[in-house]
């Protein structure tokens, strides 16, 4: 059977009407675990990208959607365990405590999820932005149980821009102009000067693209529901 490949030039491209929406368990068990153990993946949907070699808005993919990447962790110091998460314009800073990722059958812990926030500038005086990253790592016990030594220190990263109320972000300049939504224009109809207003054009209907955009109102402490599916699948948008 031919392996499905949905990654082109480092960007995930799914058929119209579908989106890649895995749970934490599916990301760790079906994708990260297989990647670390060099096992075949269910499908090529996650590109390999060094996340810290570029700023979050420069990473490949749609800035308005969640983006998933396989990346390797680089040690900050030669003899230390801390990761180097500095980019060209800033750095990723961990927040909160790591969350355990367990299977729904047997409640066995298989991995950990770390939440990071992107800051512009140099530590410790960086400016916080609304860019969030969830970094998934596999427990070393998983590779030991399979008698396999991991060749590379793979992690799986989910990067997204957190939306605030009203759809705005804390740092609008973080998103290129082409990725921003057009700002609405308000008119004061209580004033006498109404010249130049084309009310007919404003009431005309626009043509729909036919592709439903999924909501991306994510928070850095989002809780996802876990499923018992043994094989990840693509969910059709409703």
UniProtKB/TrEMBL annotation:
UniProt keyword annotation of DNA-binding present: yes
Keywords: DNA-binding, Nucleus, Transcription, Transcription regulation
Pfam families attached to this UniProt entry: NAM
Domain of life (superkingdom): Eukaryota
GO molecular function ontology, one term from the record: DNA binding
Domain NAC residue range list: 14-162
Coiled-coil segments on the chain, per record: none
GO biological process entries: regulation of DNA-templated transcription
Region spans: Disordered: 199-238
InterPro entries given in the database record: NAC-dom, NAC_dom_sf
Designated name of the protein: ONAC010 protein
Organism field: Hibiscus syriacus (Rose of Sharon)
């Amino acid at each position: 059977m031919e392996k499905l490949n949905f990654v082109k030039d480092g960007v995930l491209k799914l058929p119209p009407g579908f989106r890649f929406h895995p749970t934490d368990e599916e990301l760790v068990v079906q994708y990260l675990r297989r990647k670390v153990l060099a096992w075949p993946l269910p499908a090529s949907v996650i590109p390999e990208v060094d996340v810290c070699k570029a700023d979050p808005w420069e990473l490949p993919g749609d800035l308005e959607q969640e983006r998933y990447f396989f990346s390797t962790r680089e040690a900050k110091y030669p003899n230390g365990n801390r990761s180097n998460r500095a980019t060209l314009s800033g750095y990723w800073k961990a927040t909160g405590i790591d969350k355990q990722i367990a299977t729904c059958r047997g409640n066995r812990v298989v991995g950990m999820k770390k939440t990071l926030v992107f800051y512009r500038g140099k530590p410790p005086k960086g400016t916080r932005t609304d860019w969030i990253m969830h970094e998934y790592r596999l427990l070393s016990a998983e590779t030991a149980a399979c008698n396999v030594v991991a060749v590379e220190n793979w992690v799986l990263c989910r990067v997204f821009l957190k939306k605030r109320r009203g759809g705005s972000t804390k740092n609008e300049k973080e998103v290129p102009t082409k990725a921003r939504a057009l700002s609405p224009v308000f008119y004061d109809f209580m004033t006498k000067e109404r010249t130049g207003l084309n009310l007919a054009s404003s009431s005309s209907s626009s043509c729909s693209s036919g592709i439903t955009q999924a909501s991306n109102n994510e928070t850095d402490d989002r809780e996802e529901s876990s499923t018992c599916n043994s094989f990840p699948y693509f969910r059709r948008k409703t």
